[in-house]
Design the sequence.
């Protein structure tokens, strides 16, 4: 399952960065594309704005077939305060831009990615290619919530993968 | 040198959508366009091999097998001694995601008419009145017309505008039988039945396009004409849109290919060399947020038989499966 989660994250981060290379965040002093997975970062109360925050929530495993089919729900939260130069009055536009980027990244063809194993990957070491693909459904966009000057939306997408023999 | 690869366990195909492709049937000779999955089954979905034309994704694709198998019984008490196919039938139904000319024609269930721009004072008619004079394609003056550019000359070009829909085909001069360049789109029983209308072939042709630019008497088209570069005698008519009629007698026939791209890289292909419409023009509605509704073209088709060249069997449809690489079978 971890391979499927890592593969989906890498795919989404790559597509979003390609759509809008200027969307970046600073995490532990490093500038990165504006996509992160909550469970892979230090616990913090800070909510990064103008970035996509992924959380893995529901999980279901169907073992009826020859390979167990794993269905995972990925919750993608993003928020914006607008820009100070515009007094925050552009926060609706910035949220709409993030909506559009996410829709394009998840709705664009192909809606599949070859599953990769990143457990041994590192600098100069490529991830290992696995035998099946990860695939996903269309995202469902939640209602935008406004708290003071901040606009927040949570979208969810179901991600599917086969659990291959020997895979943990 | 040796090569090895790990084989993943085979799983049932999972596919989200179905892609449809069209190719013409030569109605005069009854010869369909055959698709060879052994040669071309893995084609890129956006670039089907000629002469196949992409119809886009379709929804609610459903195959129905009407083949009946009966038992031959013998003895007392009667016991099944063998089996026999008493009836062979295959039908499909689907909904097109777009209202393109080709999709609308196939879903119309019959002949579809181009609503040619009418002549001044034309008597009103349900499928369009008397058409305005067509613009001839120039030869020997300026560039030759191609599948994507039509040389009508500066004077005639002044009568066109960017965004115009145009139909390009030959004049009707008394032809009988199937008409329409590239694809047979109507059957003329007699010249009197079509009132000898010189524009009749352009009225029914699938050879249509959208004008995207006009320069020096040449109309540039958004996409190539389905029938390719215009031939001698073809003329250009403007049209406002398309029309089909419930109750018309013509049966549209086409060669069909449906592809289900599996999420694991496998692929299911359904090839129906001959499909004829089995219902009139119909639509389905998806309710979004009231009162908005999306209207899709709904089609239902019956398969007609072809002979398989490998063994001479008469069949209605070919289902092929191309497993993904390195999968168990």
Sequence:
């Amino acid at each position: 399952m971890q391979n499927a989660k890592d593969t989906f994250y890498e795919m989404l981060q790559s597509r979003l960065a390609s759509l809008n290379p200027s969307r970046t965040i600073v995490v532990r002093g490093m500038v990165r594309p504006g996509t992160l997975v909550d469970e892979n970062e230090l616990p913090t109360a800070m909510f990064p704005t103008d970035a996509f925050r992924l959380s893995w929530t529901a999980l279901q495993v169907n073992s009826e077939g020859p390979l167990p089919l794993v269905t995972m729900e990925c919750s993608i939260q993003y928020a914006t305060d607008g820009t100070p130069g515009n007094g925050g009055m552009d926060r609706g536009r910035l949220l709409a831009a993030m909506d559009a980027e996410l829709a394009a990244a998840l709705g664009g063809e192909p809606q599949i990615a070859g599953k990769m194993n990143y457990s041994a990957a590192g600098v100069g070491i490529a991830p290992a290619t696995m035998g099946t693909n990860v695939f996903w459904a269309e995202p469902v966009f939640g209602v935008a919530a406004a708290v003071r000057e901040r606009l927040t939306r949570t979208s969810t997408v179901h991600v599917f993968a086969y659990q291959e023999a020997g895979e943990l | 040198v040796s090569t090895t690869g790990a084989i993943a366990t085979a799983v049932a195909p999972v596919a989200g959508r179905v892609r449809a492709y069209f190719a013409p049937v030569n109605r005069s000779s009854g010869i369909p366009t055959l698709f060879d999955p052994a040669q071309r089954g893995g084609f890129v979905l956006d670039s089907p091999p000629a002469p196949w034309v992409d119809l886009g994704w379709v929804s609610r694709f459903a195959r129905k097998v009407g083949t009946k198998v009966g038992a031959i019984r013998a003895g007392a008490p009667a016991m099944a001694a063998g089996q026999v196919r008493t009836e062979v039938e295959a039908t499909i139904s689907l909904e097109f995601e777009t209202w393109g000319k080709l999709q609308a024609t196939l879903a119309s269930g019959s002949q579809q008419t181009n609503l040619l721009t009418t002549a001044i004072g034309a008597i009103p008619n349900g499928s369009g009145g008397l058409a305005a004079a067509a613009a001839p394609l120039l030869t020997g003056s300026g560039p030759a017309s191609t599948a994507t550019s039509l040389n009508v000359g500066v004077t005639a070009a002044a009568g066109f505008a960017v965004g115009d829909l145009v139909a390009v085909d030959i004049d009707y001069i008394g032809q009988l039988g199937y008409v329409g360049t590239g694809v047979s789109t109507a059957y003329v029983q007699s010249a009197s039945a079509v009132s000898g209308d010189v524009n009749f072939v352009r009225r029914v042709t699938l050879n249509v396009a959208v004008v995207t630019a006009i320069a020096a008497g040449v109309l540039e088209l958004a996409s190539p004409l389905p029938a390719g570069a215009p031939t001698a005698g073809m003329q250009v008519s403007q049209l406002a849109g398309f029309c089909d009629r419930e109750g018309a007698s013509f049966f549209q026939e086409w060669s069909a290919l449906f592809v289900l791209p599996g999420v694991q890289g496998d692929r299911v292909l359904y090839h129906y060399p001959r499909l004829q419409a089995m219902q009139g023009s119909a639509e389905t509605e998806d309710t979004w947020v009231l009162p908005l509704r999306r209207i899709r073209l709904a089609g239902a088709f019956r398969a007609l038989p072809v002979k398989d060249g490998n063994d001479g069997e008469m069949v209605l449809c070919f289902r092929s499966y191309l497993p993904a690489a390195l999968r168990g079978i």
In short: Chain B touches chain A through 13 residues (CB under 8 Å). The radius of gyration of chain B is 24 Å.
